[in-house]
Design brief:
Length: 203
């Protein structure tokens, strides 16, 4: 028998009970650690699967299409795909998606976009890995945005600017020239908007 003493009373507890409680607490702690390791392993496998199945293919499509453009079409030239609606035109963009921020001084522009891309991709990788949300839409959103960001980052490291070539227009109204990386980012943002309206509400 073991005794726990206080100022007002003495509580007698069998030694076997103390041992059982201790072992149960220890087993619970070990199980909790095992569950954490198991969850991290599953998240890592899930992240790797989405990178291989979506992020990498989208990144390679962006690189391939840009390679075809800058190796076969002179800057400023191109050809019509759908008359009055869609052209392929080799353009260069020193700014962000659809030409934004292209007036930023060059010495700051590249550093800014490289830094913001690395930070954004790193944050999304961490959120993707640590999230317990099983939504395939959210994972697809992160995969597309990361693919697009890395695609344009590669251009900036190679050329200090981004290769654009997709030009849509109706009459005199023209959408800013963009590329597949911009398309992946835009699709990801649309998906994120849809997810924000359709995600399950916490009770």
């Amino acid at each position: 028998m073991e005794a726990f003493r206080s100022r007002s009373f003495t509580l007698h507890v069998p030694g076997e009970v103390c041992s059982c409680v201790f072992k149960t607490t220890l087993n619970y702690g070990e199980q909790h650690q095992w569950d954490d390791r198991k969850g991290a392993c599953m998240n890592t496998k899930t992240l790797a699967a989405w990178i291989c199945l979506l992020t990498l293919p989208c990144y390679l499509i962006d690189r391939l299409t840009k390679w075809l453009i800058y190796t076969h079409i002179e800057i400023g030239s191109g050809f019509t795909v759908i008359p009055g609606f869609f052209d392929i035109v080799h353009a260069r963009n020193t700014g962000a998606a659809f030409g934004m921020l292209q007036n930023l001084p060059e010495r700051y522009r590249t550093l800014f976009f490289v830094a913001i891309t690395v930070i954004a991709c790193g944050a999304m990788f961490i959120i993707f890995w640590r999230t317990s949300d099983e939504s395939w839409l959210l994972k697809a959103v992160f995969s597309l945005i990361i693919a697009g960001a890395l695609g344009n980052l590669t251009d900036r490291l190679m050329f200090n600017e981004v290769v654009d070539f997709l030009l849509f227009h109706i009459g005199r109204y023209r959408w800013p020239t963009f590329n597949m990386a911009d398309a992946w980012i835009s699709a990801g943002m649309v998906g994120l908007l849809i997810y924000s309206f359709t995600m399950p509400k916490k009770s």
